[in-house]
From TrEMBL, chain A:
Component of the menaquinol:cytochrome c reductase complex. The Rieske protein is a high potential 2Fe-2S protein. Residues 64-160 form the Rieske domain. The chain crosses the membrane at residues 14-35. Pfam families: Rieske. Gene3D superfamilies: Rieske [2Fe-2S] iron-sulphur domain. InterPro entries: Rieske_2Fe-2S, Rieske_2Fe-2S_sf, Rieske_Fe-S_prot, Rieske_Fe-S_prot_C, TAT_signal. This is Menaquinol:cytochrome c reductase iron-sulfur subunit. The lineage of its organism: Bacteria, Bacillati, Bacillota, Bacilli, Bacillales. Belongs to the Rieske iron-sulfur protein family. One of its GO terms (molecular function) is 2 iron, 2 sulfur cluster binding. Keywords: 2Fe-2S, Disulfide bond, Electron transport, Iron, Iron-sulfur, Membrane, Metal-binding, Oxidoreductase, Transmembrane, Transmembrane helix, Transport. Its cofactor is [2Fe-2S] cluster. GO terms for cellular component: membrane. The main subunits of the menaquinol:cytochrome c complex are a Rieske-type iron-sulfur protein (QcrA), a cytochrome b (QcrB) and a cytochrome c (QcrC). It comes from Salibacterium halotolerans.
Automatic annotation (TrEMBL), chain B:
It holds the Pfam family DUF2487. InterPro entries: DUF2487. It comes from the Bacteria. This is Uncharacterized protein.
Amino acid sequence: MSDEQNHNVSRRQFLTYTLTGVGGFMAAGIILPMARFAIDPVLQAETEGDMKAVTDVSELTENPQRFDFSYEQVDAWVTSEVTETAFIYRSGEEIVALSNTCTHLGCKVSWGSSSDHPNQFYCPCHGGRYEKDGTNIEGTPPTEPLHRYVVEVREGTVYVGKAEPQV
Amino acid sequence: MRWSTEDIPSFVKERQYVDTALLPLLPVEFGDGIRQSAAMTEFITIMTAELERQFRGRILLAPSYTYLAADGANTPQTEELNRWIETMKKEKLKHIILLTADSSWKKIEYELDAFLVWMPLVPLENLDAAYKKQVISEQIKQLLPVVMDKWKEEGKS
C-alpha cells in the first residue's frame, strides 16, 4: 500500500511540475526573441553585394579615369539596373574614387572637360568646378566636395562601396 | 529633374537654376504604324531619361507630348504644341528642347518656337542589354554637346 503510494504523484507535485514546465516555455518564448533582437547585428552576414568590382588595379593611373559599374536596385516593386560612374586615380599608395554627381544639383561632372581648366572636374550645367581631390572651388555653385567612394582592393581588383560625403 | 513627387519640390526650390525644359514628342498610331509608334516611344523615353540623368540640375523633363501621328501628306498640328511651349516659357523655362523620332516635325520646325532635335529611330528590339546600353550611350554622347552649345549660345548673346 505504502509502496504504491510512493509511485503515485501527489496532486501538489503534479501541479508544481506542470506549472514549472509551462512557465518555463512561456519565459523562453518571451526571452528568446528579445535576445535574438539584441544580438541581431552580430548575426547579420556581411554580404559581398555591398562592394562592386570596378576594374583592375593595373588600369589605374595618376589621372582620374571614368569607370562605369552597375548593380540592381529594388525600389518598392520595381527592380532596376542602376549604372554609376566613378572617377578613379592613384595618389601615391592610395586609391581615390570620386562620384561624378555634382553636389550642387546632381548633374554629371567630368574630368578636364573645360578647356580653361584642364585639371579640374567640371559641371556643364552651372559651371561648378572641383579640384582633383574633389574639393569644390570657391566662387562656383557647389557648396561641398564631390562624394568619395569607399574603396577596397582584393586580389588586384578594385571594389567600390558607398559614396560618402567628404566633409 | 523628373516629373515626380520626389523631384518637383527641388525644382520649385531651385527654379533659378533650372532654365531648360525637355519635352519628348511621341506620335501615336493604332493601325499599321503601331509597331513604329511603340519603338519610337521606347527609344525617345530612354534617350530623354538618360539626358535628364546627365543634366538633372538644369533640365526639367516634362511629361511626354503625345499626339495622333500625321498620315501621309499631312503634317502634325503645331497650334497645341505651341501653346505648351508658350506656357513653359512664361514659367521662366527659357530653353525648350523637343526630342522626337518623328521626322514630320522637321518640315515645320520653323513654326515652332523651340529647339527641335530629331533623332532617327534606332531599333532597339532584339538587341541584348549590354549592346543596347552601348548604342544608347553613343547616341547620348552626340547629344550632350548639342544641348551644351545651346546653353553657350545664350551666354554670348
